[in-house]
Amino acid sequence: MSETIKPLLSVENLSVEFGSSRVVDELSFTVEAGKTVAVVGESGSGKSVTSLSTMRLADMMGAKYATGRIMFNDRDLLKASQKEMRSIRGKEIAMIFQEPMTSLNPVFTIGDQICEVLMLHEKLGKSAAMAEAQRLLDMVRLPDSAELLHRFPHQLSGGMRQRVMIAMALACRPKLLIADEPTTALDVTIQAQILNIMRDLQKTLGMGMVFITHDMGVVAEMADHVVVMWKGKKVEEGPVREIFANPQHPYTRTLLSAVPKLGSMTGEEFPKRMPLTVLQDGEPALAGEERIQDTAKYDEKPLLSVKDLFVRFDIKKNLFGKATHRCSAVQKVSFDIHPGETLALVGESGSGKSTIGRTIQQLQSSMGGEIAFNGRSYSSMSAAERFRMRQEVQYIFQDPFASLDPRKTVGFSIAEPINTHGLINDSKAVKRRVDELLERVGLPSNVASRYPHEFSGGQRQRVCIARALASDPKLIIADEALSALDVSIQAQIINLFMDLQAERGLAYLFISHDMAVVEKMSHRVAVLYLGQIMEMGSRQQVFENPSHDYTRRLLSAVPVADPTAPRNTALIEGEIPNPVRRVGDEPAILSHEEINPGHFIAKSA
Amino acid sequence: MATRTSRLSRFASLEFILGTVLTVVICLAVLFSDVLFPGGAEKINLMARLAKPFTNPAFPFGTDPLGRDVLARVVAGGKISLLVGFTSVIGAVIFGVLMGLIAGYYRGFWDMLVMRFADLQLAMPFILLAITFIAIVGGSLTNTIILLIVSQWVQYARLVRGSVLTLREREFILSARAIGVKDWRIIFQHLLPNLIGPVIVLMTLNVANNILLESSLTFLGLGVDPTIPSWGGMLADGRTYLQTAWWVSVFPGLAILLTVLGLNLLGDWLRDSLDPTGRTSR
Amino acid sequence: AGKMTISTPQDPGSWDPVDTFLTQWAAVSTNIFDGLTYRGPDLKVVPGLAESWEELDEGKRLRFKLRQGVKFHDGEDFNAAAVKFTFERLLGDQGAKGPQRSNYTAIDSVEIVDDYTVDLKLKAPDPVLLTKLAGYGAMIVPPKYIAEKGEDNFNTNPVGTGAFKFVSYQPKVNIKLEANTDYWGGAPKLSEVEYRFIAEPATAVAELQAGRVDLVIPPTIPIGMIPVIEGDSKLEIVSVPGPTVDALRFNTRDGITADVNVRKAIIMAVDRATIVQSILAGQASEIVSFQSALSFGYDADLKALPYDPEGAKKLLAAAGVKAGTTLQIDIRGNDATMNEVAQVISSYLSMVGITATIKPYETNVITNDIIPQGKTGAMFQQKWGGWTFDFDNTAYAMYHSGEKWNPYDKDEKMDKLLESQRPLTDRAEREKILKEVGAYAAERALELPLYNTNAIFGINKRVKGFIAPPDNRLKLNEVSVD
Amino acid sequence: MAGFLIKRLLQAIFVVIAITLVVSFAIRLTGDPALMMFQGGGSMTEEDLQRIRVSLGTDQPFIVQYLTFLKGMVTFDFGRSFNGGTSVSLLIGDALPATLLLAFISMFVSIALSIPLGIKAATSRGSAADQAIRIFSLIGLSFPNFWLATMLVLLFAITLGWLPPSGMGGFASYVMPAITMGVILTATNVRLVRTSMLETLQSQYIMVARAKGLSESKVLYKHALRNCAIPLITYFGLQFGGLLGGIVVIERVFNWPGMGTLAFDAVAARDYPVLQAVITVLSLMIVGINLLVDIAYGLVDPRIRTE
Ligand SMILES: Nc1ncnc2c1ncn2[C@@H]1O[C@H](COP(=O)(O)OP(=O)(O)OP(=O)(O)O)[C@@H](O)[C@H]1O
Ligand SMILES: Nc1ncnc2c1ncn2[C@@H]1O[C@H](COP(=O)(O)OP(=O)(O)OP(=O)(O)O)[C@@H](O)[C@H]1O
Ligand SMILES: [Mg+2]
Ligand SMILES: [Mg+2]
Fold it and tell me: Structure pTM?
């Protein structure tokens, strides 16, 4: 430790245990003011637990600190009382939580929840706090911030909630910010924007940052220093360029080699299954075959066909219950998905991606348009057909925590589709199938008897994937299904998806922000903006010849996993697009133009 | 495996042990009351009226106004009391929870029907219900139990419905629906375990309530033969002796207390073991 | 001077004399109203508003000389017109709305002889009429006041000639009276009286203990609470034999109790003396027929069947009743004393081989449905409190065939006896027949006579000059408080 | 919202009519009020009874009696009590405020006690405080309310002489009834609060609230409480409705001239007009409370749509 610069935070020899299992083992690292330490590592390696321990919130989950200390401003946080911690939390150290969907209190408005911190730590009055909250929402580029303050969390999209969380954490200008996957639910343009803001604040405030992420591109852009964790231990640490240029530990090397790179598929017509980098005898090695994923059956009639879909949410109502303001979440969206095809849905956060998915899954009613599955439109389906459809179409929710029953073991949840549709009747066989599914998503089968809260974010995500696979579906709607996974697991799941596609002709509606992953695995891509499709075409068309402005912006904002690459620090300016309009003042519906066979772009109005 | 041991230690928790021991001991004593005190509960001895407790070894808990052994009666009194207490609560819970689930989950017409029916039921004062009920069906132990069920299902129904209303909007219920899980399975497998906590609390407490109510029905004519001892009946009998012979009512009261205590400990344990989130936090 | 507070268990709801039979009404109204005659705690009928009276026309006309110079509380004069108004009201439309009228149907008409002389013309002689004139429906009411203020107003704003004037009434809470200093019997010693309606015995006793109530009137204090009051140096219990008698009557029509010997055996199997001594703590006296010792027609020489379990067993064996035979005793569920007594009886019966079960009913259900409809068990509780203290009132209702309270028994001899005494004005002759009725009922063992309970008053010792009335008719003009 | 209210209003009318119909009909099966007037010991003939029935109007066919009642109800004229002829509206006018006031106070006492105690028990789960709170709440339940009430009277009214043993009057007279009722309600409520709280405290947003540095009381009373409010509101609503019907025993012990006593006496005397009026008022209140509860659901938890 250097004599001259005293670190802001120094974690020394920290071990954390739940019951008898140690999930963080003798971990040490330091964060200096104005610097960013990225913590990367395997899903479930103890990253979130470490950050919760720093806040002393892991106490409430039943964690015990077996060894070590956490020094912050010359005091050992592990020795501080909860009362002392309260004056530190939010003010001195702020945290952005991993799962934004479950992190906001469902019964309070966004405004209330942000104001609370401001009123507490900055001693602002209610109206001043509100004004400040609105400014913060503007800063994270949320549309119509004045109105948004009065909305409830469930009315926001995943990415919007995440931005609310970020605004909340930054509200009091903390000395140390712990950001646990702060941008996973954000599209790359907004992500770039948010990262810029963080860097800015860091510079002006001298804020130290602990940045937990799976996105190596983000690490490369943000971090000064990197800590790599694996199975509860720190396996390597060093300056960011060092780590990228010269990774020492085999796990680090595996990790880096598994990072998907945008543009790596240039020239390929079809997505490609790539060999996996795995640790073999402590050394990374390539495993598995390379295969062209030529599975889409365009000659067959579409499996799913969405035509002119409209979905609107009433935002404000007058006294008589008539809507005055509406959010046009989905506007005249049409697309087909063929058997064996992967259609990627990308686009700005809040542009209606999840809503489309939910509507296909009949969790949300549409206000117009038609959806047909296997040639049968929803409205004409019999009850039995509908039931069957629920087996054949599976949905992986954006927030895995919220979508798992807290009272049921994950084994139960995974077995549920099997039992519901009577796919396997023998209970032993069901159990075997559950174990097999768990293993396929990279979890040990003995976790079947655990409950959702006992998992890490990425582990829960994999449970949800396993559940979706359980019913042997024809179509999987994967809403940010891979974003919480570390890249090596991610690669493994991508391959799993592709293998299933090859074996059984599975189709995917793949909703994602990660352009590199999209490039890697999709046949066709649809780019959504403000509820409308801006551009749609084959992967090659969209990625190699992006023709809509927004698509181009999107692609240019993708962070590059190379710390030496030049950074794009230009802030996006101008009007924040807003899907909420007065009734009667609906946004214009754009018409599409086919610029190449199968390549459509929206004509600007 | 961490969870294994914590699950084991949960079984070994003080709550569970104490609750089980209490409940089992009480149930056994009550079941074998005839063996423990043959004929003791009914034997009238007008010469030994209102004997003080802890003085005469023949009557450790003293005697009642008819000179009967309070201890023997307390033990024997559990038969009726526990029967009425348990069956009526179980009946009310089953019916009420079912109605609440249906109303809350399906909403619309069913909600309206069940809840307006509940309003009807709630607006009916208990004694009125009791009197008209007996007038129509006559008094008996079974009818006492039915009456208690009829008068209490609403509590559970409303409680459950309220909780269902929030839960049904939660994402894990949506995801079960998305999978195609049948309604009744969603209701019983997902909703029920997530809202059962308050129901268990209310249930364990209503056992006490119903044991006491049973006795108050006596003077409405729904009660049972006063020679057959019951805790509630003993408490009611002891009413005029509160100032002069406390033991007549305190011992049956304690019996109820211990029973309810045992049940509540078990209830808490049940609630906790249904709630996995609390598991590692101990 | 001084104020006295009294706890009474029930609010009769109306203070109009024609409206109710409740003794709780009389406990208050005896102070507000007067009748032509008056019956005090000694149960002797003495002059009230009438100074004297005579029987004319072989008892078919009663002539009353009225007290002069008496005024109602509103200042109206009391005179023959008021008497005529009172009885015409009672027997007319207003009386038809209430239960009291049925007591006075012997009166045919009222004739004013002069301002202070009035004749009651009777349809048939009524030997109990003078007693009835001392209470309830026969209370003299003010004609002008009622005409002016209306009938409804009179229910809640009573005006009479009594020792106390009505002040205020709050339903279910209290009624307040103040002294009528112009009272013809002399100004009362108390200046104010408040009656509070307290239904719950423990509460009434607590109020007594707390000194906020000076007197608790029956039927409130349960036997079990007597020691509480006796244990308090400021308080005492005053008790006198009351009008209420309890018996367990038999179903004489069906089942084992259709056999008179079985009924006798059951009576012999029960040790009533012990019951009275222990359960009732001596606050009652054994009875032999279904009446109290105060009742007209009581036969002191009538001997009860002795307590004789062995004899009872023999009788039962002779009647062919096997050991283990069951029978059911119906009781009023809210009668705590009877609850205990019935259990003791059941235990006595078990000693002679009869297994008795007890079935409690709500009071109204047993009195209005179970008994009149003949749906009782082999034995059922009958509680009776004839306020006239005349055995006819009880016996006719209990034993005459076809009467509401007599669902099972039909006996020509009994009917004849009962009918024959009704028109008699010769007291001795009537008394003889009533004694015969009592003896005949005992001979046929129509009921298991139990006891005549005392009227139990709890009183604060600061109250002076209180004489406990057996019939609950408190007259407080001689009472004072320290 | 307006449509919702209108719908509920119609349903309320239906409920009131249904319950009064049922009650009026059923009570007539259980005894004849004319007979009851002779309870004191008068002898009567069938003719006497009939005479009284005519004057009470109970000789009429049921449907005629019921329609008369309905007609009166519209003008809030419930007729006169069979027992003494007092105007029923007057009786209700006296009893309802007495009951309402007591109910409000008891509810207030209970909520003010049970929420902090329940939260304390939940947050210090398994501790001595938790155990003590739980056991005390059980004692409150295991002995009947008259027992508790009598004990309080013995202590405060007789031994210490601080409070009046019964009756409704000044502030002092409210203390014991409110405490008795409050304690009994609290016994249940504490445990309910504790249970609901335990579930909510595990949520991620509670963790987030703590991460903001909010004081523990803010976290518990603002963030957690509101999230577990649904079962609590439901149960409080039920309890309040129950209180309005009057806790007969408590009212009797404290000689409280409330709806419970009124209803009890009316049932005992088969006083149809009073009974029908009590039921009408009660059902209106219950319907009102449940409506409020349903509206409160939507306010407390925005995810529940009121319609
Ligand atoms: N409440 C708990 N009880 C028991 N085990 C837990 C609990 N919370 C977390 N764990 C375990 O601790 C380990 C570390 O979890 P943590 O959440 O820190 O992982 P992570 O590194 O953040 O992973 P991810 O990137 O997937 O979010 C995991 O194996 C998880 O199963
Ligand atoms: N229940 C609701 N009530 C009101 N508005 C809603 C509701 N659900 C979604 N919205 C709005 O609909 C729009 C689209 O939401 P959606 O969840 O589909 O976005 P998304 O494209 O999935 O975004 P993200 O990538 O951030 O998850 C958003 O503006 C959101 O605020
Ligand atoms: Mg994590
Ligand atoms: Mg989304």
Answer: 0.87
Q: Which of A163-172, A182-191, A354-363 is predicted with the least confidence, judged by mean pLDDT?
A: A182-191
Mean pLDDT estimate for chain B: 82
Residues in B 210-229 with any Cβ partner in C closer than 8 A: 218-221, 223, 225-227
Taking the C-alpha atoms of residue D205 and residue D228, their distance in angstroms, rounded to an integer, is 13
Q: Which two tokens stand for residue C406?
A: 């007599």
Q: Which of B174, B180, B189 sits opposite A390 (nearest CB)?
A: B180
Neighbours of chain B (3+ CB pairs under 8 A): A, C, D
Which residue CA neighbors atom 26 of ligand 2 most closely?
A159
Q: What is the dihedral of CA B217, B220, B221, B227, to 10 degrees?
A: 50
Whole-number percent of chain C with pLDDT over 70: 100
Closest to A458 (Cα-Cα) out of A6, A34, A101, A41: A41
Verify whether the Cβ–Cβ distance C13 to D43 is below 8 Å: no
CA B63 to chain centre: 27
Domain-embedded: residue A348: no
Domains with residue ranges and CATH for chain D = 88-306 (1.10.3720.10)
With respect to residue A528, please indicate whether it lies within any of the assigned structural domains: no
Chain B residues in contact with D146 by the CB 8 A cut-off are 239
Among the listed residues A266, A288, A285, the one whose alpha carbon sits nearest the alpha carbon of residue A275 = A288
Task: Choose among D2, D211, D307: nearest Cβ to A57.
Answer: D211
Q: Does A95 touch chain D (CB under 8 A)?
A: yes
Residue A23 lies inside a defined structural domain of this protein: yes
Ligand 1 pocket member A462 (CB < 6 A): no
For residue D59, what pLDDT is reported? 84
Cis amide leading into C219 (omega within 30):
yes
Whether residue A89 and residue D300 make contact (CB cut-off 8 A), yes or no, is no
The per-residue pLDDT for range B52-62, each reduced to its tens digit, is 888 877 777 88
Contact A406 B172 (CB under 8 A): yes
Cα B99 from Cα B90, distance rounded (Å): 14
Residue D41: band (very low, low, confident or very high) from pLDDT cuts 50, 70, 90: low
CATH 3.40.1350.10 fits domain B9-274: no
Tokens of B18: 């104490």
Domain count, chain A: 1
How far, in Å, CA of B139 to CA of B157, rounded?
26
For residue A105, the domain's CATH number is 3.40.50.300
Are residues D267 and B197, on separate chains, in Cβ contact within 8 Å? no
Name all chains with 3 or more CB-CB pairs below 8 Å to chain C. B, D
Full residue range of the structural domain in which residue A95 is found:
9-257
| Contact residues for C464 (Cβ-Cβ < 8 A; gap 6+) | C479, C480, C481, C482
Chain A CB within 8 Å of residue B25 CB: no
In tens, the pLDDT along C389-418 reads 888 888 888 898 888 888 898 889 999 998
- How far, in Å, CA of C243 to CA of C388, rounded? 9
Ion ligand 3, residue ranges at CB < 5 A: A 48, 98, 456-457
Intervals of chain C under pLDDT 70: none
Which residues, including other chains, have CB under 8 Å from residue B86's CB and lie 6 or more apart?
B207
Report residues near ion ligand 4: CB below 5 Å: A 157-158, 354, 398
Residues of B in contact with A402 (CB under 8 A): 170-172
Report the separation in Å between the CA atom of A395 and the middle of ligand 2, taken as the mean of its atom positions.
16
Alpha carbon of C401 to those of A117, C127, C161, C431, C449: distances in Å? 89, 22, 42, 21, 20
Domain contains A46? yes
- Whether chain D has a CB inside 8 Å of the CB on B193: the answer is no
Q: Is the pLDDT of residue D137 over 90?
A: no
CA-nearest residue to A467 within chain B is B179
D168: left (phi over 0), alpha (psi -120 to 50) or beta: beta
